Amino acid sequence: MEILVTFGAKISECMIEPVARQLGYFFYYKSNVEKLRTQVQNLEDAKDRLQHSIDEATRNGDEIEAGVLNWMSRVDGILEQIHKFLGDHDDQANTRCGQFPDLSSRNRLSKKAKKLALEIGSKIQTAGGFHKVSYLPVLQSTFDVNGYVAFQSRMSTFSRIMEALRNPSFDMIGVYGMGGVGKTILCKEVAKKAKEQMLFSKAIMVTISQNPKLENIQQEIAERLGLRLKEKCIPVRADRLRHRLRQEKKILVILDDIWEKLELHDIGISFGDDSKGCKILLTSRSQDVLYNDMGAEKNFFVGLLPMREATNLFNTIVGHTIKNLSFQTLATEIIKECACLPIAIAIVANALRNKSYPVWNNALQELRMASPTNIKGMHEKVYSSIKLSYNCLRSEEARSLLLLCGLFHEDANIDGEHLLRLGMGWGLFQRIQKLEGARNKLLTLIEDLKSCCLLLDGDYNGCVKMHDIVRDVVISIASKDRHMYNLRSIAKMDECFNGRKLKDAIAVSLSELDQDCQLPERLEFPKVQLFCMRYKSLCIQNIFRHWMYPYFPYGQNLEIPHHFFEEMKELRVLELNSICLKPLASCFGVFQNLQTLCLWYCDMGDIAIIGELENLKILDLSGSSIEELPKQIGKLTRLQLLGLKHCSNLKPIQPSTISNLINLQELDMEESFRDWDVEGDGGERSNASLIELKSLHKLTTLHIQIPDASILPKEIFSEKLERYNIVIGDVRVRYVDFGISRKLNLKLNKSDVFNGNGLQMLLKKSEVLYLNGLEGLNNVVQELDVEGFPQLKHLHFQNNFGIQYIINSMEEIHTCCAFVSLELLQLQNLMHLEKIYHGKLAENSFGRLKDIKVGKCDKLKNLFSLSIAKGLLQLKKIEVTSCRMMEEIIIYERENGSQNIGDEAVQKIQFPQLCTLKLCFLPKLLDFYSQVETNCTSQGEGRQLIADSAKSLFNEKVVSPNLRNLTLKGIDSLNEIWHGQSEGIRGDEEATCMFSGLRGLALLQLPNLLHIWDENCQTDIAFLDLMGLSVVKCDRLKNLAPSWISFQNLIILHVSSCYGMVNLLTSSIAKKSLVQLRGMSISGCKNVTEIIKNEGSETGGEIVFNRLQVLECCHLPSLTSFYSGNFMMGFPKPKYVGISHCPEMSSFSRGVVKTPQLEKLTLIDEEWDDERICSLDDGMEWPEGGYKEQYFAELDFSEQEIDELMISDDEMYSKKSKIELIEGDINATIRQLWEKDQYGPALQQLFSQ
Fold first, then answer.
1. Please, which residues have CB within 8 angstroms of residue 806's CB and are 6 or more apart in sequence?
2. How far apart are CA 660 and CA 695, in angstroms?
């Protein structure tokens, strides 16, 4: 009986349960399908939420996490599959067999629905696990060395500084010399070269100056490191900065222009005792400061130029004039008066360029008479040379502007818009009434001063800076000749008052006030016309660069006494920065001559009293805490500029206040007021209305945010607008190119553009255009601007699901001309876009394009035709991602009889400036450049290939000599990267191959790639410039390169999950190249038997990896040895060798292996994550001129850093152990471990399958 029961149970298990399960699929068919529909909706909702986060992050300049992008791509594929399934299921499931449903179809569909629902549930769960979708990229320091001259006399000093940086015995190095000798630019060149040579992964330069502010130094270093310092307490900020710096492996911190002892610990500059790869480079005018105060271990003197080099520098700048013999004697005397100082020579030579003999003679006399007065550290010849250049300026306006720049703090980035506000109020631009005219005049004067080397380019577009030597002289001239004073503190002001120096002052700047300073009750400046007072803030440096300082606290504790300004009745310009003005002093009413009032980041309440300043022309309250703009402001009928930028608390603007400002020319409300009342909606208005703008007939500049296009009045935007930044809709874009003056950001429907509000007119004039949505739009050019946007520089178009063409000229009689000025084109999430243009275009269309980025345009098959691509001579970057139907990037379309197919000139294409090419997740991509006939008569001939079959992505018809970075990812059809190009690499000869200049190559998820370079090339040896090579999941690759390839510049080599690979490189390649290799990582290649292939006929010789420091072999189940040949192997500098899950590895090499610096072998027990490997960074972007700190760049590790090397943030490597080398022999160590298995659980996991 028991046997029967058991037998019956087995029958039930084997027969009844499967039958019941199949019947369950039938009976729960509708339920399973409905659950699938619900899950699809949930998945689409999750996808939309994630897309919103991605869009917001992209607008803010963030980089999107690779895992998020991969998830979005996979979900798109799943949704496409499910929508097709749901669209077909009704017909299939309802098929009748007589009067009964088709059980087979229902079972199959129900089963698939349930399976898909479970898969969707997994994806939704994954989406919920994304705690963040993006990250803020760290801004890399760039060292602008324009104007640097490699003087022969300083080459030795330069080389010795570089050698000291390489020397682990020196942590702090100093460079000293007199002011103007060229210390700063020399150190910039040192930093540039050190980064190119991979000595440091990062280099940061901070100017300390004569009066250092610890908060600003901390802030600048933190920003360069991507660190946000939210703490206010200096010691706490120092601890935070110190912790961050100690995370850096190799960093160079340059502290420029140190005048006295600086406590680095108080700032937070400390690396720890074991951080030998981190260095500090100091510059000073005093050797004593460097040696005694700072303790620099090695100091280098930078002296005057020899007469020969000084003469060459002078002659180069003055040009052809020096060829006249009569000038040459004068030139010699002038150079002597400049004391052979580079800055003095440059300034004087620029002042004398193209000048006559009497001017040169007079210059010599002035140089001999000038005096440096009592400027600390100033060489008399430097003073005289700068004073001469000042006197030689062609206009009084230029001299006044230079003196105005001297009122800013040291090392300031002086914004042109800041100078415009001060200059207009001060009367600098005589007889110019319009702001735009004054702006043009200002830019002209700035260019004149820059050409004389009296001003320098600033760190940001639109900014200028002053060399500290020039600034010292300018401040001296201003105080002595013009009674203009730059005072650093209240104490300095009191000192001047006691000496009665300020009685006749016409301009005073207090630019570095402390929070706890005590302001006097009253200032007695009876003649002052310009007064600036700025709190010494740790955050604010420039109101016009607000995006850099988003967490600024208003006002702090610095308050203005009630009678502070009473004696300044002649005041024309008043600037207060970060001051508490609650309540606003009643003495403001005495400023009847005031022309410019700037109250930036001030804490304010009621500002009605400002309405009494009847002569006011410029009122800028940007960044202030005002909550209301009162109606009294409407009394300022002479006002030309009103600035309310970043006034985030501003809610009500009293009705008619704006419309009463009848002379207003510029209105800036960027990221400020949005609560516009709607005109004509009944009832009394409580807020400003957009209709008020129509009363401003002189308005030429408008920065404004409008929440919805539906509230736009008719003809609201005038043709007089020349500068604008208008945002319409619920969008926010942080745009930081301050050289652009006309920007539109639109999230609306197409119909909103054509309702007579003036938007269509602004579209034609815009330089930057963001289009978000615009449903109903079918053709950007023909529907928005038939003239083809001739002034547009940047076009961003995203999130439109109907548009087919950006340009459609098929119905046009004449050839269409479009986007002739466009430099950047970004198309994102245009799901039905079929072509960028359809029809004929003029040859100069897209002719200035430098950067194109296309993503998630699923119906787009190509970017450009050959006729347009031939004109893309300035194109520098192409990035195409997640476009499912993309078949080629460039297409050659031939119409009937129009071109000869054999014409070489027609077929060849050149991209002379292309530097970066990135093609990712393009499953149907066949060619980069295909040749296709467009006159095929049958559907089957729709894509007739005229050239070679599409097994190769590139061929010899594509020429791009400056290509530096190539990333290919997720291109399933790719068999070969380039065809017939290997012959173009010829030893030491000039390379003709398109790819001979590549620096970075990343090949990821290319399952059908057969080889990277031609196997059977006739070239004996080819030298590649490749610096970084990453190959992941290329399963059909057998090895990396044939024996004729030489990787003499390769720094990083990363290979992972290539299941068909049996070895990486031949021994001949390893022997003759790889001299620069620093890091090698091989993982997850299950068929690799050895890394370096034994070619069998090897006798004698050696393979030496001179610079290899990191070697890792993980999850290589077939690996028997690193190299099985007879060559001796040398690793002079390895500091880390990691091995994981290599059970067949019985030795490192058959021959002798020398590893003099390696003491331990690291064994890692890791969880293999194939998906994580595939979501690694898509590649390395290397600059055209040299190396870039990235990836394995920081490779000179200390012992402590080696311990932490393979521990990532997500603790991927959870366990590891270190094994002491047996008698220093890695070969013997691995052999003994394999034979005896004596190291416990960690070793068992290492050598088990």
1. 779, 780, 781, 797, 827, 833, 835, 836, 837
2. 8
Number of H helices, E strands in the chain: 30, 57
Cβ–Cβ < 8 Å for 179, 379: yes
* 1015-1049 residue pLDDT tens: 766 555 666 778 889 999 999 988 888 877 788 88
CB atoms within 10 A of CB 981: 22
**Lookup result for tokens 């990453």:** 1030
Say if residue 126 is exposed, middle or buried (CB neighbours under 10 Å; 0-12, 13-18, 19+).
Answer: middle
Can you tell me the distance from the alpha carbon of 1008 to that of 1036, in angstroms, rounded to the nearest whole number? 6
How far apart (Å, rounded) are the C-alpha atoms in residues 1052 and 586? 68
Token code pair at residue 711: 């509230």
Name the amino acid, one letter, at 278: C
Which one-letter DSSP state was computed for residue 21? H
Backbone torsion region of residue 483, taken as left when φ is above 0, otherwise alpha when ψ lies between -120 and 50, otherwise beta: left
Short-list 147, 342, 176, CA closest to 257: 176
Helix axes 380-391, 325-337, angle to 10 degrees: 130
The string of pLDDT tens digits covering residues 541-569 is 456 654 444 444 555 557 788 888 888 88
3-state secondary structure 915-968: CEEEEECCCCCCEEEEEEECCCCCHHHCCCECCCCCCEEEECCEECCCCCEEEE
Spatial separation of the C-alpha atoms in residues 351 and 391, rounded to whole Å:
9
The helix (run of H) or strand (run of E) holding residue 24 is helix 17-27
Q: Check the CA dihedral 243-247-250-253 and report its sign.
A: negative
pTM of the model as a whole: 0.71
Long-range contacts: 489-495, Cβ < 8 Å, 24+?
A: 489/513, 489/514, 489/517, 490/517, 490/518, 490/519, 490/520, 494/520
441 has a pLDDT exceeding 60? yes
457, 468, 448, 350: which is closest to 399 by C-alpha? 448
Return d(Cα 715, Cα 433) in angstroms, integer. 27
Whole-angstrom CA distances from 184 to 143, 192, 306, 1077 are 11, 12, 19, 32
CB count within 10 Å of CB 1100 equals 7
By DSSP bridging, strand 1079-1083 and strand 1110-1114 are: parallel
Largest CA distance in the chain: 130
Helices within 370-489 (DSSP H only): 380-391, 396-405, 416-426, 435-451, 468-481
Q: Provide the β-strand partners of residue 426.
A: none
Q: Which two tokens stand for residue 500?
A: 């009665």
Q: Phi/psi at 713 (nearest 5 deg)?
A: -75, 165
The whole-number pLDDT of residue 515 equals 67
Specify the 3-state DSSP secondary structure of 151.
coil
What is the Cα–Cα distance from 340 to 126, expressed in whole angstroms?
A: 67
Q: Are strands 1065-1066 and 1045-1046 parallel, antiparallel or unpaired?
A: unpaired
Report the percent of the chain where pLDDT is more than 70.
78
SS3 track for 812-859: CCCCECCCCCCCEEEEEEECCCCEEEECCECCCCCCCCCEEEEECCCC
How far apart (Å, rounded) are the C-alpha atoms in residues 113 and 120? Answer: 10
Report the first-to-last Cα separation within the chain, whole angstroms: 47
Rg (CA), the chain: 35
Tokens found for residue 443:
């830019």
Question: What is the rounded distance in angstroms from the CA atom of residue 109 to the CA atom of residue 115?
Answer: 10
Query: CA-to-CA distance for 1030 and 869, rounded, in angstroms?
Result: 29
The predicted model gives 747-772 an average pLDDT of 84
Give the side-chain half-sphere CA count within 13 A for 69: 23
Q: Are 836 and 810 in contact (CB under 8 A)?
A: no
Please provide residue 280's backbone torsions phi and psi, each rounded to the nearest 5 degrees: -120, 130
Q: Which two tokens stand for residue 968?
A: 């290919």
Structure token pair of residue 926: 């066949």
- The one-character DSSP state at 260 is S
